[in-house]
Specification:
This protein is α+β, with helices and mostly antiparallel strands and 166 residues long. The chain is 44% helix and 18% strand. Helix 2 crosses helix 3 and helix 3 crosses helix 4.
Length: 166
Amino acid sequence: MSSLEAAEFLDAVDLALLDRLQQDASLSNLDLAAAVHVSPPTCLRRVKRLREAGLIQRQVALLDSDRLGRLLGHGLEAIVEVTLERQGAEQMEAFERRVVADDAVQQCYRVSPGPDFILLVRAADMPDYLALAQRLFTSDANVRNVKAFFSVKRGKFNPKVRLSRP
């Protein structure tokens, strides 16, 4: 099903299901159905359709990095701006393929204007970050400029997609 076809079948119930699942994807089908005021079979069928349409990409657990940091060591979180020397489609795709394959890269965005990419990366410590920088940036002859900003405090993290229509 194309994204256009998927958008055409979205109604208030679908949007309520998507909204509720963004808040808590661990709800049972029974609890989810009750929360959006539909029968459990309707809920199950709708959620299955939303998954098949690709609107629910995957379900994951969001971990509390501050609590885990106290147990495992905080590590470093950095926002990294990367500018390439050559911005042709082939060079951009090659760089993106390489960085998204690295486990230290949590998020990767192509942006404009300004740098070509913004990456969110995690490293255990500064030597680990330096190894990451060598692996992803220094060894790539097409990387012209890298600017890293190290997070000292995260004020907000909310991966929720806004579902209201314009």
